[in-house]
Amino acid sequence: MTDRDATRSSRRAILIGAGALGLAGLAVPARAEPDPPRHPRTVIADDLIVKGPVPWVDVRAYGAIGDGTTDDTDAIRSAVAALPPSGGTLLWSAGSYSVSGSIVFDGFTDLTVRGAGGVAITQVQELTKTFEFRSCTGLSVRDLTFVGCGTEHSNEPTATSFNGVAAIFLFDVTGVLIEHCTVRNHAGGGLRWSGALESAWFVENTFVGIGVPSIEPLANNSDFAIGGFAATRNVDITITGNDISASCFGIGVSGGDRVVISGNRIHDIPGQHGIYLSATSRVTVTDNVITRTYGLGIKNQVAESYPGDVSEVDVSHNLLVENQTAIVIATTSGVAQSRHLTNVSIVGNIIRGARESGIYHTAGVDSRIADNHIDDTGNYGIYLRFVSGDITDNSIRRTGWTGLWAQVDELTTIRGNVFVDNAIAPRTQPGDLGRTEWSHHVYLGTPAEPRTPEPVAVLTDNVHSAPSGEPDTLTALVRISSPVTTVWSDNINLTAAPLRVDGTIRHSDTRYSPQASIGAETRGDSVVSGRGHREFHAAASPETLPASSLYAVGDICWRTDPAADGPLAWICITAGQPGTWRALS
Fold first, then answer.
1. Bridge partners of 307?
2. Residue 403 neighbours by CB distance under 10 Å
C-alpha cells in the first residue's frame, strides 16, 4: 500500500466513524457491518479526498432531504452559508435534490462543490439559474447532474436574447474546473459565463439541451451548452472531452486568448453552430467530432466591432459531417479589408456532406490549408477570399460547385492537391456566374484591391480527374482570371476540360519542365483558351510537332532563347495565323 492509499484509508475511517469528525450539526451514525447504511443523512465518502485541514459540509446536515419531492433550496443555502470565505468542500450525498431558486456562491476561494454517488439537482423555478458563482478563485464543481424546466428562458416573443440563464453561471471567476457533470433540459444553456474568466477547465461533461421542436433553426433560445459571449476577458480556457447535443449552440467563446477546444463530441444541434468563436486568438480546435448541425460546424469570425487582428488560429484533425459549412474562419462583411486573420492553420480535417462548402476562409495572411479530406459538398470544396499562403495536399471530391475557388492577393502556393468530380451541380440560372466561377476544378481571381498589385499563384503537382464522367457543367478545368500571374508546372489533367486563362501564365523552369507546361501531360486533346500563354519544349518549330501535342493550328508561337544546354522552347498564344512563329527578344 502506498502512503497515499494509507492516507485515503485513514481519512475514510475518520469520515465514516461516528462522531469522529466533530463537526457542528453533522450527525454520522455508526455503520453496522455488513448491512449498508440506510439513514438519509449518512455520508458516503469513499470518493472524497480532502487535501489539508479545510472544512467540508454535507448539505443533508443542514436539512436537505434529497428525496426528489421536498424543496431543498433553503437547506442548501444554509449549507453554503456555513462555509467560510476561504472555501472548503460542499458535499452532496446520493439523492435527488429539488430547488426553486438560484444557489449563489459569492467571493469564495478554493471551493469544491461535488457529489458523492448519484446526485441530481432539479430546478423547478422557470427563468432561474441553478448555481451562480461570483468573484470566486480556485473553484471545482464535480460529479453532479443538473435538470432544468425546459421552458423558454426569455420573455421576448422571439426568444433571442443571450441572458445567461443556465444551469451553471460564472461571473468574474479565476481558476475553475468543472468536470464529470451532466446538464439536461436547461433552456438557457448548460454552462455560461460573463465578466472575466481566466484559467478554466471544462472536462468530460455531458450537455443535453431542449432539442426540437423547442429550438427552431437559427434561433438563440437555448444559447450555448458551454459559452460566454458577454465577457470582458477570456484567457487560458480548455474545453475538452465533453458530449453536447440538442442545444442551440454547442461551444462559444468571444474575445478569447489561449483557448483549447479538443476531443469534444458535438452532435444534433438544431439551432445554429457547433463551435462558435468570435475574435478568438491563439486558439486550437482539434480532434472534435461535430455532426448534424443546422448551422456551421466550426466558426471563428472577426466582426466590425472588434478593433484588431486575430492571429494563430489552428483548426486541425476534426471530423465534421452534415454541417451547413464545415469550417468558417472569416471576417464579417463590414470589416475593412486592411483587417486580417494571420497565421491560420486548417489542417488534417475530414469533412463530409456539407450542405454548402467544406472550408470558407477570408482575410487570411500566411494561411495554411493542408491535408484536408473534403467529400460531397453542395457548393464549394474550399472557398478563399483575400487570402495568401499555402493550399497543399488536400483531397477535394464530389463538389457541387468549383473545387477550389480563390481570390488571392499575395503569393499563394497551390500544390499536391487532388481534385475529383468537381462542378457536378453548379448554379446555372440566368444572370449568375454559373459558367465563369462555379463550374471548374479551380478558379483563381483577385479582389478589387489586392495587397499585391499583380499577385502570383503557383500551381504545381496537382491532379485533376473525373472518374464518374465529365459533366457538361464542367466548363473549364482551371480558370485563371486577370490580373493573377500563375506559375504552372507538373500538374496532371486526366480530363478533357480546357484551361481558360485571362491573366498571365508562366512556367517555373523552362529547362527541366515536361513537354507541356499547362494542359494535360497525359491527355493530348486538352486545349487552352483565353489570352494567356503557354510553353513547351521541342527541338523544332511547333508546326512539325505531332498533332497530339499542345500546339494547335491557329497558335502564334514565339521562340525563346534556351538556357545553357537546354532545349529550344516556344511560347504560344491562341488565335493567330496557322503555323506562324517569331523570335522572342
1. none
2. 29
Helix (H/G/I), strand (E/B), else coil: 163? coil
In sign, the C-alpha dihedral spanning 184, 188, 189, 192 is negative
How far is residue 318 CA from its own chain's centroid? 8
3-class state of residue 11 by DSSP: helix
Whether 263 and 249 have beta carbons less than 8 Å apart is answered as no
Q: Collapsing DSSP states into helix, strand and coil, what is residue 70?
A: strand
What is the four-CA torsion angle of 360, 361, 362, 367, rounded to 10 degrees?
A: -160
> Residue 251 forms beta bridges with which residues?
226, 275
Q: Is 548 exposed, middle or buried (0-12, 13-18, 19+ CB in 10 A)?
A: exposed
Residue reference for cell 486573420 = 341
Residue 421: all three cell numbers together: 468530380
CB 575 within 8 A of CB 533: no
Q: 10 Å Cβ neighbour count for 580? A: 13
Mean pLDDT value across residues 46-62: 63
How far is the CA of 284 from the CAs of 128, 235, 258, 458, 558, in angstroms? Answer: 33, 13, 8, 28, 52
- Report which DSSP code applies to 5: H
Pick from 299, 173, 281: nearest CA to 224 = 299
Phi, psi of 309 (to 5 degrees): -85, 165
* Residue 530: band (very low, low, confident or very high) from pLDDT cuts 50, 70, 90: very low
Q: Which residues pair with 415 in a beta bridge?
A: 392, 460
- Which residues on neighbouring strands pair with residue 285, listed in sequence order? 261, 315
Q: Tell me the DSSP string of 165-196.
A: -SSEEEEEEEEEEEES-EEES-TT-SEEEEEE
Residue 554 backbone phi and psi in degrees, to 5: 105, -10
Per-residue pLDDT tens digits for 486-514? 777 778 878 877 677 666 665 443 333 33
What DSSP element (H or E) covers 111? Answer: strand 109-123
**For residue 9, what is the DSSP state?**
H
Distance (Å, whole) CA 449 – CA 336? 12
Task: Supply φ then ψ for residue 247, to 5 degrees.
Answer: -105, 165
CA–CA distance from 154 to each of 35, 150, 452, 566 (Å)? 49, 12, 49, 75
Gap between the Cα atoms of 335 and 305, Å rounded:
8
Radius of gyration for the chain, computed over Cα atoms and rounded to the nearest angstrom? 32
- Beta-ladder partners of 24: none
Contact 184, 203 (CB under 8 A): no
Q: What is the DSSP string of 227-268?
A: EEEEEEEEEEEEEES-EEESSSEEEEEESEEEEEEES-EEEE
Name the residue among 75, 56, 61 with its Cα closest to residue 140. 56
What was the pLDDT predicted at 406?
Answer: 94
C-alpha cell, 244: 453536447
> Residue 46 pLDDT > 60, yes or no?
no
Other CB atoms within a 10 A radius of the CB of residue 323 amount to 28
Phi, psi of 544 (to 5 degrees): -90, -5
Q: Are 380 and 399 in contact (CB under 8 A)?
A: yes
With 0-12 CB in 10 A as exposed, 13-18 as middle and 19+ as buried, what is 163?
middle
φ/ψ of 113, rounded to 5, equals: -120, 115
Residue 142: which of 227, 202, 219, 81 has the closest Cα? 202
Q: How confident is the model at residue 583 (pLDDT cuts 50, 70, 90)?
A: very low
Bridge pairing between strands 382-392 and 367-370: parallel
